[in-house]
Amino acid sequence: MSDLLVINQLSAAYGQAIALEDVQLRVQPGELVALLGPNGAGKSTLLKVISRALPARGTLQFQNQSLHDFSTEQVVGLGICHCPEGRRLFPELTVLKNLQLGAYLRNNRQQIVQDLEKVYALFPILRERSDQIVSTLSGGPQQMVAISRALMGAPKLLLLDEPSVGIAHRLKMEIFTAIRRICDDGVAILVAEQDAQSALQIADRAYVLEHGTVAQEGTAASLQEDDRIRKIYLGVA
Known about the structure:
With about 240 residues, the chain is α/β, with parallel strands linked by helices.
């Protein structure tokens, strides 16, 4: 199976400050890959580079096509949808309006309606709250809206940045279960997450970023058994 996303020798910087250096990573179709690491490791930067919100040097290919000359909007059209850290919702619009805006590049109304039903099946609370102003929702439902808005773009690759931050444990587990379901339905996912334990429970493979470089990679199962990963990221001696 050919890789959906291929990254080789990728480097990026904010001015003179190097954020990513010589990063190598791949994601296959239908695969759930976790991107782990502490704050400042470069996880969010890498997702921004993939969605073309930040420039970078090196190989960045999606479906065997270089992304370097694409704009963020063009990347969405190719099938890469980014759910950023902090959600970035339209706070004064309803849940439904936020979801509809996720499909702004699409023209097939019948398919959009069908995808909206899929989103409601994934997160039933969003159907109940469809007419509610997003800013009045708590953190968990807002995160569900953010993920669902990205799904309304019909992604082949879904980029999720810290989907569990600031969310109650019960809703966090519900969101992680939904992320696995999205992948099982055929959408490849690259998820940046500080909660390594929860991420490794649903991921197929994982990369550990430290100081802008890939410090470790492997299957989720192998990293869960790795002594260093267990001690630093899973809190297990």
